[in-house]
Amino acid sequence: MSEATGFITFLPHESEGDRAEMPLVTRFFIRSGLLYLIAALLTGLLLAGQFALRLPPWVTTLTPVYFHLFLVGWVTQLIIGVAYWMFPKWSRTRPRGSTLLAWGCYVLLNLGLLLRVVAEPLQSMRPSLGLGWAIVLAALLQWLGGVAFVLNTWSRVKER
């Protein structure tokens, strides 16, 4: 958020003076997580109001979408973003480990989540082998994102 204008900027820049501040990849994780929180709560609202609002029957296919947006989109991304920023330093030269692994985690997790958000409801409405494989690919992308996070974080979990 810009102090001068109060407007939210989604794509902040990272300058030399930002090294002690929140890393760019952390900001992406947290801001994406906040957007997923809004999307999850809106999906939950649709699910809760389906019968009272007389929404079409396909709305029930959004149940897994709600859980994935909430748990992977909001909770997981918030945890990963804060962990990348706040966990103990890896080394003096690379305090947060690999920036490439952190961005890889972000991209893989989000590609998997977005693919899953699209493929799961479609598979529920019109099952097909292609959509089944899209869900498998989505799960694989999310798993690889999780592996990237673990590889980048494991050695930062230490006594001192």
The helical percent reads: 55-70%
Going by helix content, strand content and strand pairing, the class is mainly alpha
Task: Categorize the overall geometry.
Answer: elongated
Largest sheet data: none
- Mean of all residue-level pLDDT scores: 89
Write down the Rg: 18 Å
**Number of separate helices:** 4
The termini sit apart by 34 Å
Succession of helices and strands? HHHH
Instruction: Name the poorly predicted regions.
Output: 14-19
Number of strands: 0
Give the percentage of residues in beta strands.
Answer: under 5%
Short description:
By secondary structure, this protein is an all-alpha fold. Helix content is 63%, strand content 0%. The chain has 4 helices and no strands.
Tell me about this structure:
The model is unreliable at 14-19 (pLDDT under 50). It is elongated and about 60 Å long. It contains 4 helices and no strands. The protein has one domain (24-155). With 160 residues, the chain is mostly helical. It starts with 23 loop residues before the first helix and ends in a 7-residue tail after the last helix. Helix 1 (24-48) packs antiparallel against helix 2 (63-86), helix 2 packs antiparallel against helix 3 and helix 3 packs antiparallel against helix 4.
